Amino acid sequence: MQIRILFSVAALSLGTVAGAQHASRLLVTQKGDQSLALVDPAAGKVVASVPEGAYTAHEVIASSDGRRAFAPIYGDSGVGQPGTDGTHMVVIDIASQKVIGNVDFHHGVRPHQPLIGPKDGLLYVTTELDKTVTIIDPKSLKILGAIPTGQAESHMLALSNDGLRGYTANVGPGTVSVLDIKGRKNIAVIPVATHTQRISITNDDRFVLTSDTTKPQLVVVDTANNQVKTRIDMPGTGYGSAPTPDGNYLLIALPHVNKMGVIDLKTMNFARGVDVPESPQEVLVRPDGKVAYVSCVGSDQVAEVDLATWKVSRLIKTGKLTDGLAWAAGK
Is residue 193 a part of any domain in this protein? Predict the structure, then answer.
């Protein structure tokens, strides 16, 4: 009888820990510090910087429950440039603020963009030196397979909201690869420019958007026929982008003019620019749609933009070479 009572108390205790509440966090890669910043979005302050090792992650994603961060260690170079080839990805426990796991790719692959599948919950990571997107079980951290992109420098990835398609921006070739997620195969390669960077997809999965980095244009790909539909002129070349939850706008970093651009997705025109600090890289829209965060690598800051007024409401000091952003949802 005594043993049963003790077991029940222990089980209750474990259940309480497992279901414990945790606050939302903004995750920011600090490339110059080889660490991941955990930001309290309410206070607008870094609460911890978690060391990643000798080399650094450029991008990060949070687990679906908001408790862990997955940070692929790219190396010490830029895409297409000579340098160290990253071989692994670290897993960070957000509550304890430390590395708790590792995914070993067993050779240099320069892992870069991680995303969680919207339907299957699996982890997808671009492994550009293998010309693939690697599929990982985020719970067991086992590699389940890979999807060939058919192109070099598959640097960034977007997943359709229905979970059926993936799209990679292939930097040097200037192409977009279309991936069959369930079939784990490459089904198309779309020429878009002589050099491209970053990629995103509209909420209705109708359009994929990537930047022509040889000119100030955003390339719009129609996913129904995998062809370029239009090109949108902008005041500067584009970089990271993200749609607003209402589907009305695409927000895009314009690093050479120090602005966050606003694209009207109904008219497919450039609507306005919001001044931000030096060299914006990536845009993350908070799930409630009220705020956008813009990482500014030249100033080591994240700009918080009020989407009701289109003005910067706060600047958050986030560490050397601030770049990749992700949202870890609280419970």
Answer: yes
pTM: 0.93
Asked whether residue 14 is assigned to any structural domain, the reply reads: no
81: CATH: 2.130.10.10
**CA 310, CA 312: separation in Å to the nearest integer?**
7
The per-residue pLDDT for 188 is 98
For residue 169, the number of C-alpha atoms closer than 13 Å in the C-beta half-sphere is 30
Question: Is 12 part of any domain?
Answer: no
Containing domain of residue 317, as a range?
A: 23-328
By the 10 Å C-beta count (0-12 exposed, 13-18 middle, 19+ buried), 53 is classed as: middle
- The pLDDT score that the predictor gives to residue 19 is 57
Reported in sequence order, the residue ranges of 160-289 that DSSP labels E, i.e. its strands, are: 165-170, 175-180, 185-191, 196-201, 207-212, 217-222, 227-233, 241-243, 249-254, 259-264, 269-275, 280-285
Question: CA 145 → CA 72, 213, 243, distances in Å?
Answer: 17, 31, 29
Q: What is the pLDDT of residues 51-89, one digit of tens each?
A: 999 899 999 999 999 999 999 999 999 999 999 999 999
Closest to 263 in 3D by CA, of 209, 192, 327, 322: 209
What is the model's pLDDT at position 7?
34
Structure tokens at 120: 């299957």
pLDDT of residue 3: 36
220 falls within a domain: yes
**Residue 331: per-residue pLDDT:** 87
CA distance 290 to 142: 36
Distance CA 322, CA 34 (A): 11
Q: Rounded distance, CA 293 to CA 251, Å? A: 10
For residues 172 and 308, give the distance between their C-alpha atoms in angstroms, rounded to a whole number: 37
- Please name the residues in contact with 10: beta carbons below 8 A apart, sequence gap of 6 or more: none
What integer pLDDT is reported at residue 11 of this predicted model? Answer: 35
Yes or no: say if 319 and 28 are a contact pair by the CB < 8 Å rule. Answer: yes
Q: Which residues of the chain have pLDDT under 70?
A: 1-19
Query: Can you read off the two tokens belonging to residue 137?
Result: 């079980």
Strand partners, 180: 165, 185
